[in-house]
Write a structure and sequence with these properties.
This is DNA replication ATP-dependent helicase/nuclease. Its main location: mitochondrion. The structure is a single chain. This protein is α/β, with parallel strands linked by helices. It contains 37 helices and 45 strands. It has 6 domains: 75 residues, OB fold (Dihydrolipoamide Acetyltransferase, E2P) (Beta Barrel); 218 residues, Lambda Exonuclease, Chain A (Alpha-Beta Complex); 45 residues, no CATH class; 83 residues, Elongation Factor Tu (Ef-tu), domain 3 (Beta Barrel); 242 residues, Rossmann fold; 191 residues, Rossmann fold (3-Layer(aba) Sandwich), CATH 3.40.50. A 7-stranded mixed beta sheet has the order 16-17-14-13-12-15-18. The protein has a 7-stranded parallel beta sheet with strand order 33-34-32-35-36-31-37, with helices on both faces. Strands 19, 20, 21, 22, 23 and 24 form a 6-stranded mixed beta sheet that branches. Strand 4 and strand 5 form a beta hairpin. Helix 6 packs across helix 7, helix 8 packs across helix 25 and helix 15 runs antiparallel to helix 18. The longest helix is centred in the middle third of the chain and has 24 residues.
């Protein structure tokens, strides 16, 4: 019999032999084999615990002798220091890569695992606070260095027990106060004094012997008498049959629940976590799961690397596990996976980028636009496109490859890319001289008929091209990616499908490059194409290698993906600082790499976040101390806090809207029928061939028997899926008819022609990235960013120049057309040196004022950028400008007004980047929407004046982008009308709905347009009383006295008398529809009344086009449209009518239920917009009793004469 002696140590035992992990995860550790017959422990008066172990005939301890190839093996060196020996790289067979093979080896060598198998507890910072209260046994076995090479242990083996908090009696586990405290340092033991508090007697165990025959505590030591050398001795007798349970089973079994177990985890299942039990003593995590679809439940144990996952109850996970005879469903280092929040799809590029610097990967995903298109990116994209076209056309000769290359670089799209990255055609052609021969060599080496190969060449051949730019959404893995080429290969008489990743740089075989190939293999397997490896092609050096996707590599990439997700803002916990601002985003620690950090495009935003949180915690020698100081030397603390406050607001909006509104996950979590019912999908479509290629895009015609209705509109961005695959392509709608539509896609889907297709509306994160990038630019060290920081963040007041007599002479004819308010605004806009706000109340001629201003600026030789929230607002200004002004309209030509299409950038003709630049810079007036202002022209050129119309409807971060191209800027809008659209109530309450206009609005910088030309006197008085405090005034008597005129004599019911009256005093009417029982956001009774009224108006000779019907809810809009399909009456929501007007406006309030001071009806600004759309007649229809429950309608009704409130009859013809 041998004795294992446990000693209390304050630091790592230098005698410990350290065996490495299987891969790179810090949670893998040593494995050993031992067959034990019994263990008996005794305690002496000292603090040494002695355990006697009877070993069976197999008296050896075996460590895994063959860890995975090419991985680091850490062995103990001198003075206990770890020495890294790297095993030679050796190609692994498919069998050696398989889970079954690894499990077979493990079972063969490790029939009983020691506690050394259990990985160390994760760092405390990664553990949820809920773990802190868990009690258990933390065990670590260490073996003296007197082992022989064959693994046999000497009698001096040592057992270290970290904490004991349970006792076992009568075969049961009970709590005990006898405790040996553990250090928070996972590698040190007994750093605190042991504090036994209770005397343990054998009688406590009863007469029945199961796991422990007896327990006896020989000495009770007072806390004060213990010092570092004090020792405790305990004796335990353990039966051979239960030795496994003693060593490995967790001792926290009290309160075990009866959990339903009817969920199969052999294949990936999406579940919600019901309960979590962290078994720290066994380094396991037990989770209770419920499937989201079926509500089936089970329990699964996470071991090894997976036990350190930070989990929360109600988290959604995707899990795959195997059935274990002892603990049920099990995920360990050799089988299964856990993917946190799989509905958040992380791109493969972002994931492998985090291998080098996770902080940069996260910042790149947030502030993507801070890294502009570079020469390397352009050349890389070009080579990708050439190779893909060569493979697609099956071209082999160098002349044919050269022709394809020349055709591509001559396209307008590529010339525009050259202009964007400031490279010349000559430079591109020099690069092609290098890559074209390489492409030819690749073809001749790997695509039959192939020539001779060298020993360094990959020894397989490519027999077919399966796909190009294959898009994959692996929704169970929470990953997405696009494979350069999917190929069928033949290697040693074996045919298989592999992903091929093309790189144009040097052949580094870096972790990022290999990781990307492994991810593609993982994702292809997930979608039903089992793949165990992939090809990595370095075209510049003609090197291609096959990268094996082993179990451990896949595991670590999924763990890395889960770690990356930890820094995704979920909006569940938000808090402000003492100044009422949100803090900087949570980010990983910066890497220690001076060169990489200095050259990083995100160094300013990274340093700003670090300066706010974490810089003081870095070691003094860390290079980021100096880098962060230099990168933020131009910034004040208020600048940084302003930016990160708005970053948090945008992230809060995104997180909340994803939970409460339609989001991307609906595509794979809801059925096609459910999605179509929600009006987000068109289901069961068939592809009509042929697919036509046009300008590098593929036009697909989809058709079905059922009419499309209002499910789709021109320019909608859609994701295309099949019955088996999610998101195989995406693109914009180009044409629509009753049962078919054309969509332009980036790839040809003819190979899926026999499938049913499903197209879904897609709300990408591009707008969020755009807004975050704008905020990031605000921190840059540039003159333009400095100007905006002063004006916007520091709120410096603008200064004004005195206008010369020459300016006044030039502007005389234009100013003569304007009223006094308009003249004052134009002259102040000419005089400002920094910025100006123009507040344009409804109907005050705001557009006419802006057209005059733009024309005057052009006369003065200045350039103007016209931008707005909508395309229609931009075009409304451009189409009124004189034809002699040189205009350029940026953006998709399909969204431009027909009168402005002649100015579209797509009509420009050019053959080089230099010619394109010359034509773009020559334009005096450029028009683009705020969201379209990421156009490269605005990065290349500065305008004398940037004009932002509808500025009160634009989010503050969105309005920033065009201002980076401004010498001076002018914001125009009405803060009393529609604010920026914010879906999250929390984000709105915190201030996200505050526009830049409202933020800067002060009397000294804001002239007001108050003379209106739209509403008659009665409607004007209503608007003044409700919103504008008497400031609105009619321009003249014609406007003041205008009323509707009935040209024909018609018969109509009594209730229509007031609505059809031409009396000025009856210009505002309320039709009381009474209570209608409805649980939806539509109202049949109101729709019927509106139909009857509009029909009568038409019969009386009123132009249908001058009648507008507004409803606050889309369901009511759809209902009314369907009832009035034969009439040319515009029916829409308030948002669509903003900036427009009609002679007659009918407002359908819709709701007939208990009022609540929230929602669309209670919104003051929306009601103001509805009222101020009407010129001559304004008619409200709704349940007056319900509407009086809203304070804003109470005020409205108090301003309307009671004689103008008409109760509708109970019966009306439908």
């Amino acid at each position: 019999m041998r004795k294992l002696t446990q000693k209390k140590v304050a630091k790592d035992d230098p005698k410990q032999t350290k065996i490495s992990k299987f891969f790179t995860s810090p949670t893998n550790s040593k494995k050993l084999t031992a067959s034990v017959s019994s263990v008996r422990c005794s305690a002496s008066s000292s603090s040494q615990l002695t355990c006697e172990v009877d070993l069976t005939e197999d008296d050896s301890i075996k460590f895994p002798l063959t860890p995975p190839k090419s991985q680091n093996i850490f062995l103990s060196g001198e003075s206990g220091k770890a020495v890294c020996n790297k095993s030679p790289a050796k190609k692994k067979s498919d069998k050696e890569n398989s889970v079954e093979y690894i499990e077979e080896i493990v079972k063969e060598r490790v029939p009983i695992l020691s506690p050394e198998v259990i990985p160390p507890t994760p760092p405390q910072s990664l553990l949820p606070t809920s773990r802190a209260g868990n009690k258990g046994v933390k065990r670590k076995f260490e073996f003296s260095t007197s082992k022989t090479c064959d693994g046999k242990a000497s009698s001096g083996s040592v057992v270290h027990v970290k904490k004991i908090s349970k006792k076992v009696c009568n075969g049961k586990v009970e709590s005990t106060t006898a405790n040996i405290s553990s250090s928070t340092d996972r590698d040190s033991f007994f750093t605190e004094k042991a504090r036994p508090k209770e005397k343990l007697d054998p009688e406590d165990c009863g007469n029945e012997k199961k796991d422990i025959d007896g327990c006896r505590k020989k000495n009770v030591v007072d806390d004060e008498s213990l010092d570092q050398d004090d020792k405790i001795e305990t004796e335990c007798n353990i039966s051979n049959s239960d030795i496994g349970n003693f060593l490995f089973d967790d001792w926290e079994l009290d309160g075990k629940e009866n959990i339903k177990d009817d969920l199969n985890l052999e294949k990936a299942v999406r579940c919600i976590i019901i309960k979590i039990n962290y078994l720290e003593s066994a380094h396991r995590t037990e989770i209770h799961l419920k499937e989201l679809k079926s509500s089936s439940e089970t329990t699964c144990t996470l071991e090894g690397s997976w036990s350190g996952l930070v989990l929360r109850e109600k988290d959604t996970i995707s899990i795959e596990a195997k059935r274990d005879s002892q603990c049920g469903w099990l995920v360990n280092d050799l089988y299964g996976f856990v993917v946190l929040e799989p509905d958040t799809l992380i791109s493969s590029t972002a994931l492998v980028g985090s291998l080098f610097c996770m902080r940069r990967a996260i910042l790149a995903s947030m502030f993507r636009g801070l890294d502009p298109q570079s020469e390397i990116m352009v050349i890389g994209s070009l080579v990708h496109e050439i190779l893909q076209e060569v493979l697609d056309r099956k071209v082999r000769s160098e002349d044919e490859i050269t022709k394809i290359a020349n055709d591509i670089i001559s396209t307008k799209n590529f010339i525009f890319s050259m202009y964007s990255s400031k490279i010349t055609m000559e430079h591109v052609k020099k690069q092609l001289d290098l890559f074209v021969p390489r492409i030819k060599k690749f073809i001749s080496t790997y695509i039959p008929p192939i020539g001779a190969k060298t020993k360094d060449d990959w020894q397989g051949e490519i027999s077919a091209i399966e796909d190009i730019e294959e898009n994959i959404w692996a929704t169970n893995l929470g990953l997405k990616g696009k494979i350069d080429v999917t190929v069928k290969v033949k290697v040693e008489n074996t045919t298989k499908i592999l992903p091929l990743e093309l790189k144009t740089g040097r052949a580094s075989m870096s972790a990022e490059h290999r990781g990307q190939v492994i991810l593609y293999a993982l994702m292809m397997t997930e979608i039903g194409q089992p793949v165990s490896s992939g090809l990595l092609l370095y075209l510049r050096e003609g090197v291609m290698k096959e990268v094996n996707a082993g179990v451990m590599e896949k595991r670590d990439l999924i763990l890395l993906r889960n770690e990356l997700l930890r820094y995704t803002f979920d909006g569940k916990a938000v808090s402000k600082d003492e100044n009422g601002l949100f803090p900087s985003p949570s980010l990983p620690k910066p890497i220690n790499h001076r060169t990489a950090c200095n050259k990083c495009p995100y160094v300013t935003i990274c340093s700003s976040a670090l300066k706010e949180s974490g810089l003081d915690k870095l070691p003094s020698e860390h290079p980021m101390n100096a880098i962060a100081f230099e990168a933020t030397s131009h910034l004040k603390s208020e600048h940084i806090r302003f930016v990160f406050h708005w970053v948090a607001l945008l992230q809060l909006e995104e997180a909340d809207s994803s939970r409460t509104n339609y989001c991307v996950k609906d595509i794979w979590t809801l059925t096609p029928e459910q999605r179509e019912e929600n009006k987000n999908c068109i289901a069961y479509l068939k592809l009509v061939e042929p697919v036509l290629k046009e300008s590098g895009r593929y036009n697909h015609l989809f058709r079905r028997d059922k009419e499309l209705g209002d499910l789709i509109a021109l320019n909608d961005y859609l994701v295309v899926s099949t019955e088996k695959r999610v998101s195989i392509a995406s693109g914009f709608v180009r044409n629509i008819s009753s049962c078919e539509f054309t969509i332009s896609l980036e790839r040809d889907l003819s190979s899926h022609k026999d499938s049913y297709f499903f197209v879904d509306h897609y709300q990408s994160s591009m707008q969020l990235e755009f807004n975050l990038t704008n905020l990031g630019h605000l921190l840059e060290m540039t003159p333009q960013s400095d100007f905006l920081r002063k004006m916007i963040i520091s709120l410096e007041l603008p200064t004004y120049n005195k206008l010369s007599s020459e300016v006044l002479a030039i502007s005389q004819d234009l100013l003569g057309k304007l009223n006094k308010c308009q003249k004052h605004a134009v002259l102040q806009a000419l005089a400002t040196q920094h910025y100006l706000l123009i507040k344009g109340m409804p109907g005050t001629g705001k557009t006419e004022t802006l057209v005059s201003l733009v024309e005057l600026l052009v006369r003065l030789g200045q350039s103007v950028l016209v931008t707005s929230h909508t395309h229609s607002a931009v075009d409304n200004i451009l189409r009124r400008l004189p034809s002699n002004i040189d205009i350029l309209r940026l953006g998709s030509i399909s969204k431009v007004h027909p009168d402005v299409k002649q100015y579209s950038e797509q009509n420009l003709v050019y053959s080089s980047p230099e010619e394109l630049e010359s034509k773009l810079n020559r334009k005096r007036v450029v028009g683009v929407t705020c969201l379209g202002s990421a156009h490269v022209l605005l990065r290349m050129r500065t305008f004398d004046v940037v004009l932002v119309d509808e500025a009160t409807q634009v989010l503050l971060p969105t309005a920033l982008r065009p201002l980076f191209a401004a010498t001076r800027f002018i914001l125009v809008g009405d803060p009393r009308q529609l604010p920026p659209l914010v879906r999250s109530q929390r984000a709105s309450d915190q201030g996200l709905n505050q526009s830049l206009f409202s933020y800067l609005d002060r009397p000294s910088v804001t002239p007001v347009l108050s003379v209106q030309y739209r509403m008659n006197q009665c409607i004007t008085e209503l608007a003044n009383g409700l919103t504008y405090e008497g400031k609105l005034e009619c321009a003249n008597d014609n406007v003041k006295n205008a009323t509707i005129q009935l040209k024909n004599q018609v018969n109509f019911p009594t209730w229509m008398t007031v609505p059809l009256s031409d009396c000025l005093e009856q210009s505002v009417v309320v039709l009381d529809s009474g209570y209608v029982s409805t649980a939806t956001f539509s109202n049949e009774r109101e729709a019927t009344a509106i139909l009857n009224l509009v029909t009568t108006m038409k019969d009386a000779g009123i132009d249908e086009c001058q009648i507008g019907v507004i409803a606050p809810y889309q369901d009511q809009v759809s209902l009314i449209r369907s009832r009035m399909a034969e009439l040319a009456v515009e029916v829409s929501t308030v948002d669509t009518f903003q900036g427009r007007d009609k002679n007659i406006i009918i407002y359908s309030c819709t709701r007939s239920s208990h009022a609540k001071e929230s929602g669309l009806l209670s919104n003051h600004n929306r009601l103001t917009v509805a009222i101020t759309r009407a010129k001559q007649k304004l008619i409200f229809i709704g349940d007056v009793q319900t509407l009086k429950g809203y304070s804003i309608f109470q005020k409205l009704f108090s301003l309307i004469d009671s004689s103008n409130i008409v109760v509708l009859p109970d019966e009306m013809p439908s």
